[in-house]
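Reviewer comment 2.1 asked that we show a complete input and output for one of the modelled complexes. We chose the adenosine-5'-triphosphate case, as it is the one discussed in the main text.
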Amino acid sequence: MLLVGLGWLLLTDFLGLLLPWMLKVGVDSAQQGAHRQLLLAAAVLLVGALLRFGTRLLSRFAFLHSACRLEIDLRRDLLSSLLCREGPFFDSHRTGDLLSRCTNDLSNIRTMAGFGLLILLNTVLVYLLTLSLLFSLSPSLTLLALIPYPLLLLLVKYLSGRLLTASSAVQKGLGRISEALEEGISGHAVIRSYSLHGVRCDHFEQLNGEYLSSSLKLAKLRALIGPVMALIAPISTLLILYFGGGRVVAGKLSLGELIAFNAYLMQLAMPTLMLGWVLSLGQRAMASIERLRSLLTPLPSTERLRLAAASTAPTVEIQRLNFAYDGQPVLKDLSLTLTAGSLTGISGTTGSGKSTLLQLLAGFYPVKPGEINIDGQDLTTLDPVEHRQRLAVVPQEGRLFSGTLQDNLLYGVPGADTELLQRVADAVCLSDEVAAFEEGFSTRVGEGGKALSGGQRQRVALGRALARDGSLWLLDDPFSHLDAATARQVWQALQPLLRDKTVLLVSARVSLLEMADDIVILDQGRVAEQGSHVELLALEGRYARLLEQERLKQELEGLA
Ligand SMILES: Nc1ncnc2c1ncn2[C@@H]1O[C@H](COP(=O)(O)OP(=O)(O)OP(=O)(O)O)[C@@H](O)[C@H]1O
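Response of the prediction step:
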């Protein structure tokens, strides 16, 4: 597409050369009283102008078309690259900033790749073609006309550095504004309930102020470029008028040639002016490319093992697992074995590292070689995509996606039949509520599932995992939003379906762990107690206390 555009551009610029030449022929013919030649020159001029209109249109369309395709390709690569990133990446990048890169930065690159590139190539072509014609008309006059141009080059060099710095500052500011907007909109309920409307607006005002001052700085620089460059054309014209006029008087140059010379020189003026604009555009695009480069850099690929039998329940061995966020230790020397097809329950104090353990098993954060083995294979050597294909993960806040209940329940198995949908809904005790919705499974859940209750959201997230039918289940407190009776009912309905799976269930409600083959109580990243329900009761330790507390709480709630 670019090559086609370049072809049309070349034709446009060739036709551009014809026009001043016809002016020369016309003026010289008029001076000699050759009426027919004058008419012919005028006719060629008219046809040339019309043709140029067409070729210019086609060249622009081709360049803009290719830029749009580039933007689409880059956006697709960006999303695909973002979705491959692990937990640490998302911990260190803000959503608003990432959104700004996927919108504002891409738009800067598209503008440069479309109009910017068109103007740049046009400038090069016009300069090459026009200069060769100018030289053929009068080499000495051409050299005179070019006197101011080295000044232009120096100016371009000086301004480009300053423009790049100013553009980066503007784009960073835009990233901060997007971030504040994103947080303001998604956190609107908290902001209003804490009456922080004024505070947030003041903060936004401050960010806007910073953005304004960096934008003004950039605008001043950009405003300066055009007028400074516009000075160059008149200097050249002045020199040509004085020295060229002298030659016409001396009879060394025809009037037509002087007029054509000046017209060609004028043709250089526009691209020269546009060069300033392209320069600032180019610097903005360079700053954007820099911001996108880190996101688009492919992750280092290591030779990963293919899974032997991903569909059978695996045995997971955790050996002396240590993990820290930013140097802050969370899991310390943790060792645990989940035998194939067993149910392991985990409870413990808040912040003891339960969710972290699940995230590590899902491969969201890197672990050291040998710390986690699945079916005897080191997790760090496994193909992450294949590893995740056997997972059924229910995170603490099971995020739903805009769409219908059906879309969400079958999210992991698009295109599955409605029979599966009904089975899944039955298994997570959601069928009665779905039947009560006017539109049944076609009910829209709203952004993030906000049209559903917390308990319904959790059951949809459970159903989504069930439909996926993984062999390693990682459940992170999936019943926390359900009342004790419903939680027990859902868990009892679910258990028979998980019989041949390896399941790790984190639950703050220890009573749900009674049926587990192995129960682990975590405390500050270490195993505080481990055993079966009977063994831990006999121990009369933390587990027994937690169970008793829960029983008393339920009795009190019952009395109330
Ligand atoms: N992405 C993160 N970046 C930095 N620190 C984190 C991150 N996620 C968790 N932590 C910290 O790690 C510790 C363990 O958190 P984790 O969520 O694993 O605990 P938990 O046992 O699941 O807690 P809860 O029962 O409250 O859900 C906490 O101190 C928490 O502040």
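The mean pLDDT is 86. We note this here for comparison with the apo prediction described in Section 3.2.
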